[in-house]
User: Which sequence fits this backbone?
């Protein structure tokens, strides 16, 4: 599950390269560089089209269906857009794909897992402490 939203103009100053103001997002899609990548696409609401031309990916995201794309990754940061007329703010659906080293990718995944455990801590009941502590320790040791 992946949600990404455009960064408003007033929050861009000093944070990122302002020349990409309509393409910068709060959550980039991080993938490992120099690997064969297979992505699965689906939607819950309306049809979207995941389009990143520099990596040669254009896939329909249709409610009730799962589509896939497969490609060889290359180092770098690539931008795209949803190219389907999917709603009132269609032009404000940018896509940012960042290919990073395998060790950095594992760190991103570890951080994501820790965030998910902490976010759902209340829902888990009494067993969340041991799981979240174990994930925190594993994430910390991976960074050092």
Assistant:
């Amino acid at each position: 599950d992946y949600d990404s939203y455009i960064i408003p103009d007033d929050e861009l100053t000093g944070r990122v390269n302002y020349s990409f103001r309509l393409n910068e997002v709060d959550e980039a899609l991080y993938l490992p560089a120099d690997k064969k990548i297979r992505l699965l696409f689906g939607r819950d609401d309306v049809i979207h089209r995941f389009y990143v031309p520099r990596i040669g990916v254009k896939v329909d995201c249709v409610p009730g269906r799962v589509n896939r794309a497969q490609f060889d990754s290359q180092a770098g940061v690539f931008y795209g857009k949803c190219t389907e007329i999917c709603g009132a703010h269609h032009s404000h659906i940018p896509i940012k794909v960042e290919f990073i080293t395998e060790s950095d990718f594992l760190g991103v995944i570890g951080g994501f897992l820790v965030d998910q455990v902490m976010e759902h801590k209340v829902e888990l009941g009494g067993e969340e402490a041991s799981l979240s502590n174990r994930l925190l320790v594993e994430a910390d040791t991976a960074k050092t």
About this structure: The two ends are 28 Å apart (CA to CA). The longest strand covers residues 76-82.
